[in-house]
Amino acid sequence: MTRRDVVLVVDDTPGTLGMLNDALESAGFMVLLAQSAAAAFSVIERVAPDIILMDAIMPGMDGFEACRRLRRLPELTNVPIVFMTGLTESASVVRGLEAGGVDYVTKPLRPDEVIARLGVHLANARLARSSQAALDVAGRYLLAVDPEGRILWATPQARSLLAAAGLDACVPSLAGQLDRNPGGSLVGPSLELQHVGQVSDEERLFRVMPAADPEREATLLKERLQLTSREAEVLVWLGRGKSNRDIADILLLSPRTVNKHLEQIYPKLGVENRAAATALTVKIISST
């Protein structure tokens, strides 16, 4: 049975909720309804929607503030929020987009237009999730944080590592550590976060790895992959993103010797290149 996309509709007007419920159900969506922002948060605690249709103006917490708060929840990283509004002024549209919305529809609503826009944003969200999963498969466990250390998004495996370390929503020390160590790794009790780059003033990108224990990891790789001790040591640092020259410096070898070891390692792993060997190494080390 094909899974239906879940739409959460948030609006304080019963008539609008009823009309959208009927139209979206007829279009094949599973519909969740909330008559206030507070009710929407209660629904999300039980069921994570695939997309949210949010009224901009509601009593109590308005849609803009609700959107800002929803954007802080890691589980909603790739969930699009589309605003419904009777406001057509450009300032109100900009306010909604700045709050984290991806689009808006104006009232009175045209169900066909609403359904078409939801379909576009659901497709984009699925593409984003697929791209993040592909990074995981390639051994690139990535996350992005804002200047305060709040997690903006993370690949699935990176999120699992963060959750195991109790860092589901925020890594508040990252900004300060990065200021003191702008080019290096940021090491915590159980994780190592390597600074990849700054996407914008509001987004810094990190690679996530379990905290390094080279001796344990080399033993694990040696046993699991039938490698020599030196090959396992080379593979440990390959998995941590080190270049041949870096590996040579760490293990007191020549870069040429490191390259010869890699030529022997690839056939043993059944892979053809550095990227595939790295992905396999990260997968084995991260699973323990």
TrEMBL record:
Domain Response regulatory: 6-122
InterPro entries attached to this UniProt entry: CheY-like_superfamily, Sig_transdc_resp-reg_C-effctor, Sig_transdc_resp-reg_receiver, Tscrpt_reg_LuxR_C, WalR-like, WH-like_DNA-bd_sf
GO BP term, example: regulation of DNA-templated transcription
Hydrolase keyword on record: no
Keyword Transcription regulation: yes
Chain segments annotated as transmembrane: none
Residue list for modification 4-aspartylphosphate: 55
Domain spans labelled HTH luxR-type: 220-285
Keywords per UniProt: DNA-binding, Phosphoprotein, Transcription, Transcription regulation, Two-component regulatory system
GO molecular-function terms, A-Z: phosphorelay response regulator activity; transcription cis-regulatory region binding
Cellular component per GO, a single term: cytosol
Name of the protein in its database record: Two component transcriptional regulator, LuxR family
Species the sequence originates in: Arboricoccus pini
